[in-house]
């Protein structure tokens, strides 16, 4: 099981709620799709989730995420444009904004998790699943995140 979060914007109470729920569901990996914002939030994230964290930089970061991420062994930093990870026999693309999607599709992604819009969304375009878990910031839309069972491909949206 994977938890997918995006657009935290330093909202630590909502981040805590999402992480507590993820732990209760035995989540084994976390996709963080950008806009953590500062190093304090990244430190909190790493201190409260010990399994692999795949991290993408967003457009609102006020710290050097690449440098900060190196402090935590469970964090795999994928950069500003995101990247591909292999999970359950699939190539999964992670990015903050959809301008990176074409590159991820060219690299073989069949599912792309993205953030930025704060709006939970799922759609299939030309055989590629696009999924946005919403935001934890509670900005524009109610705070939300997603759980993905990579074995069954079942996706759940959780609204806080």
What CATH architecture label applies? 4-Layer Sandwich
Task: Tally the structural domains.
Answer: 1
Structural class: alpha/beta
CATH H-tier superfamily: Metallo-dependent phosphatases
Which stretches of 5+ consecutive residues score pLDDT under 50? none
Strand neighbour order, sheet with most strands: 4-3-2-1-10-11
Shape: globular
Q: DSSP helix count?
A: 4
Q: In words, what does this structure look like?
A:
The protein is of the alpha/beta class. It has a single domain, classed as Purple Acid Phosphatase, chain A, domain 2 (4-Layer Sandwich), CATH 3.60.21. Helix content is 21%, strand content 31%. It is built from four helices and eleven strands, in the order E-H-E-H-E-H-E-E-E-H-E-E-E-E-E. A six-stranded mixed sheet has the order 4-3-2-1-10-11. The chain has a five-stranded mixed sheet with strand order 5-6-7-9-8.
List the helices and strands and how they pair.
Elements: E1 2-5, H1 12-24, E2 29-32, H2 39-48, E3 53-55, H3 65-69, E4 75-77, E5 83-87, E6 90-94, H4 101-106, E7 111-113, E8 121-125, E9 128-132, E10 144-149, E11 154-159
Parallel strand pairs: 1-2, 2-3, 3-4, 6-7, 7-9
Antiparallel strand pairs: 1-10, 5-6, 8-9, 10-11
Helix pairs in contact: 1-2
């Amino acid at each position: 099981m994977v938890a997918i979060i995006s657009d935290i914007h330093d909202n630590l109470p909502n981040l805590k709620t999402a992480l507590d729920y993820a732990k209760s569901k035995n989540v084994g990996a976390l996709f963080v799709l950008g806009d953590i914002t500062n190093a304090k939030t990244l430190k909190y994230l790493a201190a409260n989730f010990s399994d692999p964290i795949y991290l993408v930089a967003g457009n609102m970061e006020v710290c050097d995420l690449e440098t900060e991420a190196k402090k935590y062994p469970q964090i795999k930093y994928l950069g500003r444009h995101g990247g591909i990870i292999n999970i359950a026999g699939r190539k999964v693309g992670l990015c903050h904004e959809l301008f990176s999607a074409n590159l991820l599709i060219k690299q073989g992604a069949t599912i792309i998790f993205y953030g930025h819009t704060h709006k939970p969304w799922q759609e299939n375009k030309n055989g590629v699943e696009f999924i946005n878990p919403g935001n934890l910031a509670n900005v524009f839309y109610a705070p939300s995140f997603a759980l993905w069972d990579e074995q069954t491909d079942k996706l759940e949206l959780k609204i806080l």
